[in-house]
Write a structure and sequence with these properties.
One of its GO terms (molecular function) is DNA binding. By secondary structure, the protein is mainly alpha-helical. It folds into two domains: 100 residues, Orthogonal Bundle (DNA polymerase, domain 1), CATH 1.10.150.130; 152 residues, Intergrase catalytic core (hpI Integrase, Chain A, Orthogonal Bundle). The chain is built from 14 helices and five strands. Strand 1 and strand 2 form a beta hairpin. The longest helix has 21 residues.
């Protein structure tokens, strides 16, 4: 232990860290950091670490082994990433030795495994859409994010919509299976349907078409609804847009303690490298869960989002058992 360190308890250090970050990150992110670090404080209390000056690399390994008994690998990686940021702060206030954060080894996580546990929560979705409403209203980015969240449709479904499929008077657009011209729907003809839109989303689409949509056709002579200056967007272009739009630093501070001006993940082709960026499918999962929490019947969500009840329950519904119980209670109170 270095003689330059000043004694401090784990709890006091966490309290100082929280106070330090509360103006830099959102309340939701700060709450997540407090939850993750509370587990570390609990472990310190269990093993008798009363002074962070005494913390060693071996202690950090023991904490990781202790924590991985209760959480999956995706959650573990997130909690250890927060611990690393915390330890960097602790080094700056002479609570731990410099370089202690590098002794926290993050587990490798397959992106596919991570995606199965990820979803865009409603609070974050509304912040992103609110930001786009304020600064980029009716832009292509606004349309992509707003429509994916409002409808819960797949990336390929959004890409498949033509300008003539949108019916502003009836406030809807149609999804058509057109495999011969490069826009198939995942579940083919049975997935063809009309998607109802609220007033706000129709207004955004109307403005986009009037002011920002490129008047172009694709390789098959069709007019896409959402365009680039070259024609219909590819799946990769839409996916890249979503990765960029879900980076936290677009609307608030970076939770990974990076400088956005120097971060490679803010450069085109590297948006995916941000640990907090999300894929289009996490928007679908979050949108479906949000609709379920808003008491929209499962049958309506199943039809609107083209997902069977069995698959909805197994892969999309992220409500807790208690949430489901409380929603059922609302329907039986007057029986």
């Amino acid at each position: 232990m270095s003689d330059d360190l000043e004694p401090i308890s784990p709890r006091e250090a966490v309290d100082l860290y929280v106070s330090h970050r509360e103006l830099e990150i959102s309340a939701k992110t700060l709450q997540n950091h407090k939850y993750r670090l509370n587990a570390f404080v609990e472990w310190c209390n269990e093993v008798g670490i009363d002074n962070l000056n005494e913390l060693t690399g071996r202690d950090l390994h023991r904490y990781r082994v202790w924590r991985q008994q209760d959480v999956n690998i995706v959650t573990l990686r997130g909690q250890l990433a927060t611990l690393r940021v915390f330890l960097e702060f602790c080094a700056s206030i002479d609570a731990v030795e410099p370089g202690m954060r590098e002794r926290v080894k993050l587990p490798d996580v397959d992106r596919g495994d991570e995606a199965r546990d990820e979803m865009l929560d409603a609070d974050r979705a509304h912040k992103i859409i609110g930001y786009l409403e304020r600064y980029k209203r009716a832009s292509r980015e606004h349309v992509i994010m707003a429509i994916l969240w409002h409808t819960g449709i797949r990336l390929g479904s959004l890409r498949a919509v033509d300008l003539e499929d949108y019916e502003p008077k009836d406030q809807c657009f149609w999804l058509r299976h057109r495999p011969d011209t490069d826009t198939p729907l995942k579940n083919q003809e049975p997935a063809e349907r009309a998607i109802a839109l609220d007033d706000y989303y129709c207004d955004v689409l109307d403005e986009y078409i009037r002011f920002h949509r490129h008047d172009v056709v694709d390789d098959h002579g069709r007019k896409p609804l959402v365009t680039s200056d070259q024609g219909r967007l590819s799946s990769g272009q839409i996916r890249s847009e979503v990765y960029r739009l879900t980076q936290p630093c677009m609307i608030e501070g970076c939770p990974h303690d990076r400088d956005p001006n120097d971060c490679e993940a803010t450069e085109y082709g590297h948006y995916y490298d941000c640990p907090s960026s999300l894929s289009p499918h996490t928007i679908r999962r979050g949108a479906i869960t949000y609709q379920l929490r808003e008491d929209i019947p499962e049958k309506i969500i199943s039809d609107r989002c083209d997902v069977s009840s069995e698959v909805l329950d197994r892969h999309y519904d992220r409500r807790t058992d208690r949430e489901k119980m409380e929603q059922r209670r609302d329907f039986i109170e007057d029986l």
